[in-house]
Design goal:
The protein has 212 residues and is of the alpha/beta class. The chain has seven helices and six strands. It is globular and about 45 Å long.
Amino acid sequence: MNVKFIAKSNYLLRKVLNSKDSLDILQDLIESILKIKIEKITLNPYLKQRKNELPTEENFGIADVRILTKENEEMNVGLQFIDGKYVETKLLLYYAQIHTNQLYYKHNKKIAKTTTINFLNQNYYDTFSYHKKIHIKTKKIENEDEEEIILNVIELEKFQPIFLHNLNKEEQWMTYFKGDNQEEVERVKRMNYKINKLDFLIEDYWKNEKME
């Protein structure tokens, strides 16, 4: 993994990405992984507003956003890094947090579909693909439509691009997050302004970090 993310990855990225000035970075990242086009994106201020009320195990994740796609579909998206044991439990706990966070939207409390993007710095599933999309059907409640839990899992150790000089946007982001080839990291920063902007924000954060 990119060494800039080793120390509390979620904490660091939550610090630099939970800002209106960083929404363009989140949009580019989400669009590249979910293969959608976003018309509008807004932050759910849940973590910031309730950080002193949440138990430690719930105060995690990078960002929680509500998006409106070009196809006029509303969706909640959460992003987080996962490591260690109990991966599947962490996946489901985070999904539950993001899905229920909708209650804290002031102007739009409509319940929308939720999906999460989860980055793992370890091999966990017995698959060759680094990007695994998990669909879990939920029990149907009387008079309500059946829902589906959707989890995107990115196993960074498995990412091996075939065409280094023709990377798509998702591959650019994976190259940056994996960070095992500094020459390639610098190249994707030149290719993608949003990646370069995030890298600058991280550098600036570490230069100006203060004890909290």
